[in-house]
Specification:
The complex is a heterodimer of chains A (237) and B (282). With 237 residues, chain A is of the alpha+beta class. The chains are: A alpha+beta (237), B mainly beta (282).
Chain lengths: 237, 282
């Protein structure tokens, strides 16, 4: 079989860690390619992905050449034109105590802040992958007009549930952490539970929308989470 | 049982870590110094438990109420079993009531204490390694007690005296490969990074921050995979070397990658130590 040239560039990070860097605007769903690789190359120890790279962790016995050969034999066409079938609805609270960064960015102009949040609330995001912290999901889909530069000096502490924007990326801090992203609100829904299997409910490729709640509802949900009786809601398309 | 009479400066329990959960954002964890960890487990292997106590700078004092074998590897340290001084990389045995006292490190920064036993600790993502918030505890505290199961077979006398090459503990020239973003750096910056001495400014289990005089404003980068040993350059000119508890992804410029041996040498260095990089194999 003649091998078709694949739309990625190989990066050798370590002799047993390779990254496939995908060109901009490639048509593949990387989280589906991850599954395809796991099925077709069972020797692989671990496969992860980011916005534009797939990372392959191999045993020492699998050489770069042998890995490439196996990759070349895989037909990527089943991972084209992916559409998410599930959209999670996560609560978000814009109480003034959670939106000080937005206040700073827009110089306190409430009209601009409201316009920003309105666009944010009608956006459907996609969970691309988890990284940074356990249960920190990277969301794509932020409209260009909402992109915010990272802070010059990272904050010492962002509180759990901080919904934050770093450039074109959106994420929710699952735990207290230093961070350089701009905080625009707070979501009390937990993203990861170490005592549950699976520990996360939002899967790569799932849609995510934020639904506005007031501070009272935020507190109620926080209590429900504490008591382990909070259940996130989703729409199936 | 092992009871902590004192905790030492920063003592945690580490096994091989959490390979296979990066897709949830869960760091690898495990030992900072893989060489010392492997040596401890080679000297006292146990199929059911590879845990070590990773002791940083000042070791703990333990009251032990089980007869079992143990060994110290990694940074050399002052140590006494019931007031009898101990050597590194040598297997000893506790009696039914023993006091094991570790003092200050002499050469290096992190000492590994391994008992031939199965520690009664819960597994999270297949590992007992301390990492908050996955485990409740970040480090051991005075008063902590750990129960354990020893081997059922008769204890075998182990008098093997092992020749261990511990020169890496004080190595100051660290072997590196180029990272995926190396080519983005101007030639002058590349030359500087490899030529100048870098000082350890801050360090913990997540990473080492080293000084540098390189200033380079990278274009906006998407977050990518970060591996232990990866050297990232911040816009402010700091070098961040990822170590055992590092975030699984990060958005800084990935300029260099320490070899596994060089990483073990790095994590044995305290704040204030100077080092250089060289692009040659170990």
């Amino acid at each position: 079989m003649e091998s078709v040239s694949k739309p990625y560039e190989l990066i050798v990070l370590r002799p047993n860690v390779h990254s496939l860097h995908f060109e901009e605007k490639h048509p593949y769903a990387l989280h589906q390619l991850v599954q395809l690789f796991e099925q077709n190359i069972p020797e692989l120890i671990e496969v992860t992905h980011t916005f534009n790279r797939i990372n392959l962790f191999s045993p020492d016995s699998l050489s770069t050449a042998a890995l490439l050969e196996q990759l070349n034999d895989i037909d990527f066409s089943s991972c084209l034109n992916f559409k998410s079938s599930k959209i999670w609805e996560l609560p978000i609270c814009f109480d003034a105590s959670f939106t000080t960064d937005l206040h700073d960015i827009f110089d306190g102009n409430q009209v601009n802040i409201d316009a920003f949040l309105k666009t944010f609330l009608v956006t459907t995001f996609t969970l691309e992958f988890y990284g940074f912290l356990p249960g920190f999901g990277y969301l794509s889909g932020l409209p260009k007009s909402l992109h915010l530069d990272r802070k010059k000096i990272p904050d010492k502490t962002l509180i759990p549930g901080s919904v934050a924007i770093g450039g074109e990326q959106v994420g929710v801090y699952p735990q207290k952490s230093p961070g350089g992203w701009q905080c625009i609100g707070n979501s009390p829904a937990p993203w990861i539970n170490f005592d549950q299997e699976p520990p996360v409910f939002i899967k790569a490729g799932d849609g995510v929308r934020f639904v506005e709640i007031d501070l009272k509802r935020h507190k109620e949900i926080a209590v429900a989470v504490e008591m382990n009786v909070y259940h996130p809601t989703s729409l199936t398309l | 049982m092992i009871a902590f009479i004192s905790s030492g400066f920063y003592t945690s329990i580490q096994d091989v870590g959490r390979q296979g959960f990066r897709h949830l954002g869960v760091p690898l964890s495990g030992p900072m110094d893989q060489t010392a960890f492997d040596l401890a487990n080679d000297l006292l292997p146990h199929p059911a438990d590879q845990c070590v106590f990773e002791c940083t700078m000042i070791g703990p004092t333990l009251k032990i109420t089980v007869a079992m074998r143990f060994v110290l590897t990694g940074a050399s340290i002052e140590a006494w079993l019931d007031n009898r001084p101990l050597e590194m990389n040598k297997v000893y045995q506790t009696t039914v009531v023993s006091e094991l006292k570790l003092g200050r490190v002499i050469r290096g920064l992190r000492t590994y204490l391994r008992f031939e036993a199965v520690l009664d600790l819960p597994l999270y993502f297949g590992s007992k390694s301390f990492f908050t918030p996955i485990t409740k505890q970040r480090r051991l505290q005075k008063g902590d007690k750990i129960t354990l199961q020893t081997r059922s077979e008769t204890l075998r006398q182990n008098n093997v005296s092992l020749r261990v090459d511990s020169s890496y503990l004080v190595a100051t020239e660290l072997a590196v490969d180029f990272g995926p973003d190396w080519e983005m750096l101007p030639d002058q910056a590349q030359a500087k990074l490899l030529k100048e001495a870098h000082t350890v400014e801050v360090q913990d289990r997540m990473g080492y921050q080293l000084s540098s005089s390189v200033r380079f404003n990278a274009p906006k980068l998407l977050s990518q995979l970060v591996l232990p040993g990866m050297v990232q350059l911040t816009p402010g000119g700091k070098l961040l070397v990822a170590t055992a508890d590092c975030q699984v992804t990060g958005g800084y410029l990935q300029v260099l990658q320490l070899t596994p041996k060089a990483l073990d040498a790095l994590v044995q260095k305290a704040e204030g130590k100077k080092l250089t990089f060289r692009n040659k194999p170990d």
